[in-house]
Amino acid sequence: MASAEPNLQRNLHLLSAEQVELAKVLVEMGQAHLFEHWAEPAVEDDEKKAFFDQVIRLNSSYPGGLASYIKTARELLADSKAGKNPFDGFTPSVPTGETLNFGDDSFMSFEETGVKEVRKAAFVLVAGGLGERLGYNGIKVALPRETTTGACFLQHYIETILALQDASCKLAEGECQTKIPLVIMTSDDTHSHTVELLKSNSYFGMEPNQVKLLKQEKVACLDDNDARLAVDPRNKYRIQTKPHGHGDVHSLLYSSGLLTEWRDTGLRWVLFFQDTNGLLFNGIPASLGVSATRQYHVNSLAVPRKAKEAIGGITRLTHADGRSMVINVEYNQLDPLLRATGFPDGDVNCETGYSPFPGNINQLILELGPYIEELTKTGGAIQEFVNPKYKDASKTSFKSSTRLECMMQDYPKTLPPSARVGFTVMEPWLAYAPVKNNPEDAAKVPKGNPYHSATSGEMLVYRANSLILRKAGVQVADPVQQVFNGQEIEVWPRVTWKPKWAVTFKEVKNKVSGSSSISQRSTLVIKGRNIFVKDLCLDGALVIDVADDKEVKVEGSVQNKGWILENVDYNDTSVPEELRIRGFRINKIEQLVKSEP
Ligand code: UTP
């Protein structure tokens, strides 16, 4: 080893053969600075060993190891410095996909197909993100999806998967023992809290072996354009690390062996979803039906997108050399790409009032067979990018260390042109209500654009459920406008139901009949399975909580003082954070509870 690393030389005897090899790699890859501050032998030896434990982890969790990481980083940093456009030579056009209209015959028929298929599906929740924009202290999946029941996102997801499992089994011929697998990708930031949330709630009714956690590792931070690895400012014997992005899910699934296990038990689909979209399952059965009917290898769930809205657009990119792909183009790249390729107005709405490029909501449905085939070639590696914040126009130094990142929706980038890549567009009220922004940032969102806050996340659940009931024939009153945490928002009647009551529109229709009405100030909470609403006139709060084997008819007039929404000050730290970030809480003044154990 070169004499430039005397500190390392002096300490070599501490290292195993494997560690010595890795030390060589580091030195050869221009990382000798990592040993500059090492102490004499016999001083801080445990820390030196811990350093190499970390290096081994970083090396083994990245396809091709650290050498490959550093090499790719140098290439991407050089491209970034040169201002190279990753889409150079590609022309965008609008791809073909399916557009659904909630509740019509075609929607219901896709839903039916989807429910049949779902027992051949595995679900994958990516939940390793820090949630810096939201700034919540806990993990995001532990946040209540809405506060009438207080059920958290993870509970809602699991209960919906279980309800889909039951619904699908009912349609199966013969006996059905299906247990739909759920994988949760965590990171060091979320892992232990996710385990605790599951264990302390008995996995929300799932069998513990139905749920598998895969933890993603962080990647090394980079200090400069030569990809010198950053020393952790808190410990000179550690490399600073940051999250690599949700694209890790593909390599983790591949290396876990789960994909082939699933294939061998007859599964056909893998559905990916994110941590805080309380409406996502409203669109899952129909979209899975689209995947099955259109034989999509990749189906991206999408919503109509306003031009310049901060979500990516699903785009077909065609290269002069014949390459072609259907891929998410980030909103800040779509406008310049359009302008550079013969669309002088860039990202603008068409005659529908929306951009012609559907907005990606990052829920993917992949067909398992072709997915395994592709990952066998790539090992699950996803094309990465780097996004350094430069100190000045010379682009020679960074404001803070950067790292390589990858996104799960970039999976189709390596697919052959023969791959069937499509999308399914749904109305945004039905399937998209993410919770990503803290109240201050949400309040600054330009008028008319979605807040993506805890406030909107909950209010959109009530809106969607109200609109679904309307479509099923219930007279649901119009909303009123209210302001919470500086965000003006529609407040609909607070209607919620457990997934086991209905996971498809057909089930809702079967359970609602006659002429029912719900006033704006009302709350309706349905907690049982066999609850039939008929000629109900609700003006107040009604909670129906009956055992699954009981059948109950809900009818007649219910009137009481009800549950009232009270404003909560975001800065009032005496209020739990889960409520403060919404800007309201529910004061349960009076209600009728129908319960049968
Ligand atoms: P977001 O875009 O919401 O990012 O991730 P984030 O990291 O959670 O939040 P910010 O950007 O810091 O505010 C979309 C989904 O991908 C997961 C998140 O948990 C979320 O479900 N994710 C993100 C991962 O699983 N791993 C990552 O490294 C990043």
Automatic annotation (TrEMBL):
Pfam families in the record: UDPGP
Keyword Zinc: no
GO terms for MF: UDP-N-acetylglucosamine diphosphorylase activity; UTP-monosaccharide-1-phosphate uridylyltransferase activity
Catalytic activity: a monosaccharide 1-phosphate + UTP + H(+) = a UDP-monosaccharide + diphosphate
Keyword terms of this UniProt record: Nucleotidyltransferase, Transferase
Full protein name: UTP-monosaccharide-1-phosphate uridylyltransferase
One GO term of the biological process aspect: UDP-N-acetylglucosamine biosynthetic process
Enzyme category, top tier: transferase
Named cofactor requirement(s): Mg(2+); Mn(2+)
This enzyme's EC code(s): 2.7.7.64
InterPro entries: Nucleotide-diphossugar_trans (IPR029044), UDP-sugar_pyrophosphorylase (IPR039741), UDPGP_fam (IPR002618)
Annotated family: Belongs to the USP family.
